[in-house]
Design goal:
This protein is an alpha/beta fold. It has 2 domains: about 5-195, AMP nucleoside phosphorylase, N-terminal domain (amp nucleosidase, domain 1), CATH 3.30.1730.10; about 205-480, Rossmann fold (3-Layer(aba) Sandwich), CATH 3.40.50. The protein has 12 helices and 18 strands. The two termini are about 45 Å apart.
């Protein structure tokens, strides 16, 4: 028996599950339960940190949503979300209902509409780890020297890998121990883990993230994004309300300077905000598939409506010129970071809605169409590798594979982002810009690179932003394709 097993267990009063036929009221109860639970844990921590002798163990629980249906309800088969496929009891633990308020109202409302059953809300059996309960709170008391005289694990719950994983996403957990089926792709602990990681990697709070995500691999795009954001804030008709930079620096006036950080985070992130998350987030993931996987692993819990890679690539065809665009319609995956999660034999399909939006944005920004548009944009396979210096290897192997795949471009992030979009059911796409042609001796020299960046980055970013605006105008049921849904799916997006 461990010392913690001998301690009295203190918990907040456990209320009963209440049934609701109104999504707004259900979400309000979720918020109350979560606030009570986290407040209880923070109060307990403050007591311990202030030196109070405590001979008890503190525990509080995530709230949960439950629904039960006994029928095979006839639902619009064109919808990929908002309904369950068979009778049963379904449940999901919930964290940060304040952050996910609009999402929860929407998803719960769809369940009520499609199945005509009430939803119950109450405490779950899953403890809230203290680390997650304290995240982002200003009412935490810390010792003056920053150290506690005891182990937190003896008194509070800590993250549990048994519920902080992607089993549901991967289709490996189809039922909970009580027989219930999952309503959502992520458990509350998995969401909390990613929210904490996002703040760490991006130096911006999760609540600033928008529903339309652009990924890039060069700082030049960040500079252009800030310039675009300031221009939008200067236009009262733009609909954009604020710009957020790392360090949670929020500006609403286009002339306000952004205070520099002593050091940038690993993945500097910027948000051009709009009502209800309808704006655009730009994440500079840097170079490499590991960063691409890390960013998308965590952003996925926010359930964005689309993410698109707009970065630089190596052109593999002699007919391409520096500055040409590449619209990926297939991916050759040699990034190796997702092989254990999504086997390489799984095809990653192009999504028509994303492809059309990107192509239309290129045509609109460049003012080209038809054959003239084909002169600056190729559609084809993008290869993603994990070796930055692949050109230094014996070329017989890599070049042969690239030729056999019919690849037209190569980078180190796009296939990873697309594959994780497929895995997490987040609509994805790729529009790259050719910055060098290593197979044809056209490499970026310092002077060439500067000239190239000056002329191409602004246009490329503008295309990515315009594509996101076109996607924002689409109904959600059109963006979230059935191509991304497996045989047995959760009801929530």
């Amino acid at each position: 028996m461990t010392p913690k097993d001998t301690l009295t267990l203190l918990t907040p009063p456990r209320g009963e599950h209440h049934f609701y036929t109104n999504a707004e009221q259900a979400v309000e109860r979720l918020e109350r339960l979560y606030a009570e639970a986290t407040g209880f844990l923070v109060d307990g921590f403050n007591r311990v940190a202030s030196g109070e002798r405590v001979s008890a163990r503190f525990r509080a629980f995530y709230p949960e949503i439950r629904m039960a249906t006994t029928r095979y309800d006839k639902v619009d088969s064109r919808l990929s979300f908002g309904h369950v496929s068979e009778p049963g009891v379904y449940t999901a633990t919930v964290t940060r209902p304040d952050l996910f308020r609009h999402y929860l109202r929407q998803q719960i409302g769809l369940l009520m509409k499609n199945h005509a059953v009430p939803i119950s809300v109450g405490p779950s059996e899953t403890p809230i780890p203290l680390h997650f309960a304290m995240s982002g709170r200003g009412d935490v008391t810390l010792p003056e020297d920053g150290e506690l005289m005891l182990s937190l694990r003896d008194i509070f719950d800590v993250p549990d890998l048994a519920t902080t994983n992607d089993d549901i996403v991967s289709g490996e957990r189809l039922r909970y121990p009580d027989g219930a089926l999952p309503l959502a792709l992520f458990t509350a602990q998995r969401v909390d883990y990613s929210l904490a990681r996002l703040a760490h990697y991006t130096a911006t709070a999760p609540e600033h993230f928008q529903n339309y995500i652009l990924f890039t691999n060069y700082q030049f795009y960040v500079d252009e994004f800030e310039a675009f954001a300031r221009a939008q804030l200067a236009d009262p008709e733009s609909g954009y309300t604020a710009f957020v930079a790392p360090g949670d620096a929020v500006i609403t006036d286009p002339e306000t300077p952004i205070p520099p950080l002593p050091r940038l985070p690993q993945m500097p992130t910027y948000h051009l905000k709009r009502e209800r998350g309808g704006g655009i987030t730009l994440v500079n993931i840097g170079v490499g598939p590991s960063n691409a996987k890390t960013a998308t692993d965590h952003i996925a819990v926010l359930r964005p409506h689309a993410w698109v890679m707009v970065g630089h690539c190596a052109g593999l065809r002699n007919s391409q010129a520096l500055g040409d665009f590449v619209l990926a319609h297939a991916y050759l995956r040699e990034d190796n970071v997702l092989d254990a999660d999504l086997p390489v034999w799984v095809p990653i399909p192009a999504l028509a809605e994303i492809q059309i939006a990107l192509q239309d944005a290129v045509a609109e920004v460049t003012q080209l169409e038809g054959y003239a548009l084909k002169q600056i944009m190729r559609t084809g396979t993008v290869a993603t590798i994990d070796n930055r210096n692949w050109e230094l290897r014996d070329q017989s192997g890599p070049v042969q594979r690239l030729s056999q795949s019919r690849a037209i471009a190569l980078d180190m992030e796009s296939a990873t982002i697309a594959a994780n979009g497929f895995r997490f059911r987040v609509p994805y796409g790729t529009l790259l810009c050719v910055s060098d042609k290593p197979l044809h001796g056209e490499l970026k020299l310092p002077g060439m690179a500067s000239g190239f960046y000056r002329t191409q980055v602004a246009r490329h970013l503008k295309i990515g932003i315009r594509a996101m605006e076109l996607l924002r105008e689409m109904p959600l049921e059109k963006i979230h394709s059935r191509k991304l849904r497996s045989f047995t799916e959760t009801a929530f997006l």
